[in-house]
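Below is how a single chain appears once it has passed through the pipeline. First comes the sequence as given, then the structure the pipeline wrote out for it. We keep one example in the README because the format questions we get most often are answered faster by looking than by reading.
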Amino acid sequence: MYMATFTKEELLKIAELSLLKLDEKEIALFAGQLKTIIEYTEELANADVSNAQEPNLPFNVFREDKVVKFEADQLLDNAPDREDQYFVMPQIITKK
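Resulting structure:
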């Protein structure tokens, strides 16, 4: 099992991949929260499920996919920012 500890560098790498900039107070806060999450997942991984039974569902719980036709202008009317027939989004991919 994975130990519920990790380094500050690992936490900073997670923040970088998430495009987050953390100060020291946030690093300490998130480190504690992540430790709690990891400990909980370890408990779940160690849970005894040997007597668990598969659920017997007599019906399909998924709805059928249906194609719905829309005009592009109808969809783009809900966009906070648009240019011609395109959504305008902030850039999230950065160069190193």
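Strands lie at 82-83, 86-87.

See the next section for the split statistics.
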